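User: Predict the full complex structure for these chains.
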Amino acid sequence: MNSNRPIGVFDSGIGGLTVVHALRRLLPGESLVYLGDTARVPYGTKSHATIERYTLQAGAILQRYDPKLLVIACNTASAHGLPALQAAATCPVLGVIEPGAELAAKVQGPVGVMGTLATVQSGAYETAIRRRMPGAEIHSLACPLLVSLAEEGWLDDPITTEICQRYLKQLPDAVKTIVLGCTHYPVLRPSLDRARPGTTWIDSGDVTARAVDALLENSLGYRTESSAGPLRVLFTDAGTRLKEVGSRFLGESLEAVELVEL
Amino acid sequence: MNSNRPIGVFDSGIGGLTVVHALRRLLPGESLVYLGDTARVPYGTKSHATIERYTLQAGAILQRYDPKLLVIACNTASAHGLPALQAAATCPVLGVIEPGAELAAKVQGPVGVMGTLATVQSGAYETAIRRRMPGAEIHSLACPLLVSLAEEGWLDDPITTEICQRYLKQLPDAVKTIVLGCTHYPVLRPSLDRARPGTTWIDSGDVTARAVDALLENSLGYRTESSAGPLRVLFTDAGTRLKEVGSRFLGESLEAVELVEL
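Assistant: Here is the predicted structure of the two-chain assembly.
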């Protein structure tokens, strides 16, 4: 098996670029192909059947690039589409929920999980955390407005802080660790910190990058070429603010973008 | 031509149910078939080419019901897909922008237009208003967060008022009339009123219902059956909050819902 093949990263839109950001920091030598389904984003308000179907279609597109590994960088797509894509794909498929749950299961005391409506309703984090820690106390919280706030760029903003407070006050005070169960949320950290000071946030992008590292080390192999790892970015639709918002999530300027047909 | 055929109403999701609400109030005898493209909603952040393609696909689905008239109840789809659907459809097609512009062109002084990013970037309201009133002073304002707030149900809410204020203060004080250029916005009226007291709001749903009435009276004919007009509601995806949020927009309980495949 050729370890120089790319890692395919799939997201419902641009939020998954926070996972690409974490991957490029930790594994700068890896070749990455990112696919964002901007023509049908967001997934967080859609049904299980539709999210699963979209995830399979995106996986099929990424398979054309002969990846050594597929990463579902979207919590909603991981919650609803991971088993189906694992069954269909010809390479290993990693979601963002298992790595986040792995870390959350080690927490002493109750854990919070923030996510989209579809992620919370799937119960995927509860299932994944309780598989590792059967008696875990988990409080899940759907936060539908946060994706729009992140895309609008109101990151360190009194209104965003107020909205985060309204959501977060539904969690018991004893919750000191909260999983950011949506790839859009890490960019809201300034407002989240102000809304609930002293919280430890589990960033699913960071832990997923570490899980990818472990997979490469243990079984799939690192890219051996010495050049910096290339990044190829594909979208199913190119809205006008794509590069502006995308660069915010990627943490670097988003230059060349390719369009793919669904 | 049989005037008992239904009126087909298309929207990107559930916002267009505010137009259905206005139609059922004004024309209770008419038969309506509504199609909401909830599998791909929202359109407001997507590109011209994608919105136009989606509008054509939705129009083709509604044509199966042999409508006497198609109404594009979504401002974004009207701004980007109306000419293409008019060229493709076998019946007349009315968008929501022309009726809103008709009323806005009669206003003395400057006019504001609130809408999605895609609607504002299309310049469709400017074009339609200036066709009727060449020297009109028009101030357009993209308000990306308002759709999410309407769907979250924070209708009469201090946070929503604050967000409306932040958007609306970008308009000159002299603007006293503002077009609600997105079908989601009318449900936010309590917060909008508090954010900018004394404003006259042009509700594109209301004016579109009156435009439909005029079309039926002048050329297409009213339904002649004496029973109350039936309403059939189709969606391309059934998310879990669909009936709850849909009922809020429809102004009556949303009962039977059918799923259609894209």
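Chain A touches chain B at residues 38-41, 45-47, 49-50, 117-118, 121, 144-145, 147-149, 151-152, 159, 162-163, 166, 237-241 (CB under 8 Å).
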